[in-house]
Amino acid sequence: MPDAVPSGPVVDSEFALFHLQRALWDPVDPARVGSLADSLHYRVNGEVYRFADERNMRRFVNAPALYCGLVRDPVNGRRFLPSSRTPAAYWVGGPYFFSSDSTKAAFVDDPKKYEVVRRF
């Protein structure tokens, strides 16, 4: 019998449990639901964050490390909480945070190789 191969994309269960359960909650004000409007979303490490209003989105954009929570380094896959001193680079639609200067350097050398694209 051949090895079982999934017929479609495989969702990382930890990602799904952590992110999808709160995918529509505004990260600045979790008591409010984020909008589905494209104009009220922003990406950090490729993940989509949705906001209830423009004011909350501006607060998030000015200090994403304060509100984004746990992120995954796109180069080595390590999960961590970013801070204001975390290595970061901006790429297509938002910042990417890294667990070390070396993973940031690898990303900057070839961002298309490591970029995360989520369409929710």
Structure description:
The protein is α+β, with helices and mostly antiparallel strands and 120 residues long. It has one domain (13-114). Helix content is 28%, strand content 17%. The protein has five helices and six strands, in the order αββααββββαα. It has a two-stranded antiparallel ribbon. Strands 3-4 form a two-stranded antiparallel sheet. A hairpin with a 2-residue loop joins strand 1 and strand 2 (47-50). The longest helix has 9 residues, at 54-62.
E-strand count? 6
Shape: globular
Taken as a percent bin, the fraction of beta residues is 15-25%
- The H-and-E topology, N to C, reads as HEEHHEEEEHH
- What ranges have pLDDT less than 50 throughout 5 or more consecutive residues? none
| Count of alpha/pi helices | 5
Assembly type of the chains comes to: single chain
